[in-house]
Amino acid sequence: MLNKIETRSEERREPFVRPRREQGSPEPPSASEKETAWGFAFLRRPAIAFSVIFVLIAIVAGGVIWWLNARQYESTDDAFIDTRTVSISSRVNGAIVDLAVTDNQLINAGAVLLRIDDRDYRAALDQASAQIDQAQGSIANIDAQIAAQQARIDQAQNQVTGAQAALTFSRQEDERARTLLSKGAGTQQQAQQASSDLRQKQAAYDAAEANLAAAQKQLPVLKTQREIAQGQLEQSQAARELAQANLARTVITAPTAGRVTKLTAAKGDYAQAGQSLMMFVPLNVWVTANFKETQLADMRPGQPVQIWIDAYPGHPFDGRIDSIQAGSGAAFSLLPPENATGNYVKVVQRVPVKIVFDKPPDVYLGPGMSVVPYVKVR
User: Fold this and answer.
1) Closest to 117 measured CA to CA, from 9, 288, 247
2) Max alpha carbon distance in the chain (Å)?
3) Do 262 and 279 touch, CB atoms closer than 8 A?
């Protein structure tokens, strides 16, 4: 049995001898020839060849279509949601007695945000109202005095008229008495009596005119007092209007619909005039897109825009260009560049473009959120 095993092992060790090719038989193909033959055979199949050609044509056509479509748009990722935030502050001093809102709350226009203690301002309003009543009473009193003084003037005028008539009659009597005395028809006593009566009537007339003048001079004094009282009334009315305004300012309301942010006020705090109590973000928002200046050649107000917001990637919003800023953003920065000094390096500038939504978005948007707008310029 051992001899059989050794015999088999020897048979396995015998080298492989390639059979001799007979004369006239073809040479077997090499490895590279086999690959080429398989490739041509693959292309000789009509269905596969058509599929390959179709895919190549589709790729080229898709690239051309994409390029033709992409060149119609200008886009930038340097764009953000923007709005004009409002700093809510108190215009009067006082303790906060009621805080009607909380953080990030949606508020309608005119809704009450907070209330300030109004007792001092109500007292100031009552005091101004009392001063108005006092001034009106003074004016009414002076008007009555003017009316009475006008009656005195009329009475003095009547007295002057009567004294003037008596003086005229007395003057005529004196002339007749003198005429009769000169002709011997009258007595000296009658002439003296007529002369004395004339002097009395003249004195009475002079006194009546003096009384009239005094009464007339008193009237401007009363009118001046009335003007002073009228000025006090107007001053009191202005004080009441100011008190009413300050009283109204103790109730702070929302200037427009929006959300409350950065709320720092708390019930019981003392609010000072001008102190910021909260920030208010209106619902009216837009997009500020900082395009390169090389992208503005075909950009015009009114062009349609597709707005992609990073927070809502699957939902584009429609909008349009509202306006283009007259100058780059760097020109209106806190420290604008001074290119006339030092070495100059040209940098492509960014120009802010305002983009508005066609209709208010029905999603939450706030200033600073990232946006990618696509403006159709061709």
Assistant:
1) 247
2) 218
3) yes
pLDDT tens per residue across span 130-159: 999 999 999 999 899 888 888 888 888 888
Output phi, psi for 54, to 5 deg: -65, -40
Ranges of the chain with pLDDT below 70 = 1-46, 48-49, 64-70, 185-186, 342
pLDDT tens for each residue of 277-309: 999 999 999 999 999 999 998 999 999 999 999
Query: Position 316: which residue type?
Result: P
User: Phi, psi (5° rounding) for residue 232?
Assistant: -65, -35
CA-CA distance, 352 to 312, in Å (whole number)? 23
